[in-house]
Amino acid sequence: MQLPPWWELGDPCAWTRQSRGTRRMSPSTTGTFLLTVYTIFSKVHSDRDVYPSAGVLFVHVLERESFKGEFPPYPKPGEISNDPITFNTNLMGYPDRPGWLRYIQRTPYSDGVLYGSPTAENVGKPTIIEITAYNRRTFETARHNLIINIMSAEDFPLPYQAEFFIKNMNVEEMLASEVLGDFLGAVKNVWQPERLNAINITSALDRGGRVPLPINDMKEGVYVMVGADVPFSSCLREVENPQNQLRCSQEMEPVITCDKKFRTQFYIDWCKISLVDKTKQVSTYQEVIRGEGILPDGGEYKPPSDSLKSRDYHTDFLITLAVPSAVALVLFLILAYVMCCRREGVIQLVHHSAIQKSTKELRDMSKNREIAWPLSTLPVFHPVTGEIIPPLHADNYESTNMPLMQTQQ
């Protein structure tokens, strides 16, 4: 039988040596018990404040270890549990997160990560993220609130921004502090800036990439955008060379002199690198000047009076309907007259009928004509018996089909 959660903390009746019917505890024991219960519930409803800067990558890890102790039965000190835990994150009062904030968790046995780049529009507005943890074994839940206080950055935005595509990394691997630090160190050695910040990280799947095949430990790839305060180095500018552009168009790897500084840990696709110079971009925003495009003040609005004259639309309706109907009727009559009364084929049919009748009369006359029979058809005497042999054809035989030469019997 499963015991209530407070039994895991010990039997209060055993603390005071009272029977379970009375349920009495000493004041010190009662204080200890309430303190324990308060500690448990304070963990469930505790809030945490973070202070990211606008235009700088924000990463917050949801550690499973910090939530394991909040699901009953509560583990004892030193006890290790490995329950599958998943997280659900949303903006307080809304079903989803803000547009700049993303979340990823590969498996229920890995930590979740909130990451994104806050914008300048969110500066000074506290963003409360509700984090709900689900224990997939016991179906218990625990909720925390993450209060994100976005601060304004003095050097935001950095004027020179470069976006790299790393093939051999997943987004959660790149979000690890040591891996991201190694990448920024490699970029700093190549770029040599005074200030260098990671601006944003995006998975290749969010850019329309395909899910990699589960062979050879293939990675989905990740885009990393960094910003600096100095112009791009000559190594980064090598991507814009015509020779490298031609090799990229032919799906060949370009020749970059500083690639070996990244290749030890990061495999970069130099054909997908993007270099943005904010100093050369012309702002398209135009301030609205009062008086241009704004209607002048016309005074107080005066609606039309109620005493409007009624208008009769009966005549308009008849004109709209009767005129097209009359025109259609006239066209129909003209077409009927042409098709029925002025057909040239009637004379041709009469002429053809006369020819057919004449042909039939000639055929009837040819059947009744009488001609002389050939000598071969006349009766003759049999050379042996002397009997008269009748002609080969009867008298009513059609002579028009009679051959000139008869077949000898």
UniProtKB/TrEMBL annotation:
The chain crosses the membrane at residues 317-338. Keywords: Cell membrane, Cell projection, Cytoplasm, Cytoskeleton, Glycoprotein, Golgi apparatus, Membrane, Transmembrane, Transmembrane helix, Ubl conjugation. It comes from the Eukaryota. SMART domains: CADG. Its main location: membrane. It is found in: Cell membrane, Sarcolemma; Cell projection, Dendrite; Cytoplasm, Cytoskeleton; Golgi apparatus. Pfam families: Sarcoglycan_2, Sarcoglycan_2_C. It is a single-pass membrane protein. Belongs to the sarcoglycan alpha/epsilon family. Component of the sarcoglycan complex, a subcomplex of the dystrophin-glycoprotein complex which forms a link between the F-actin cytoskeleton and the extracellular matrix. This is Epsilon-sarcoglycan.
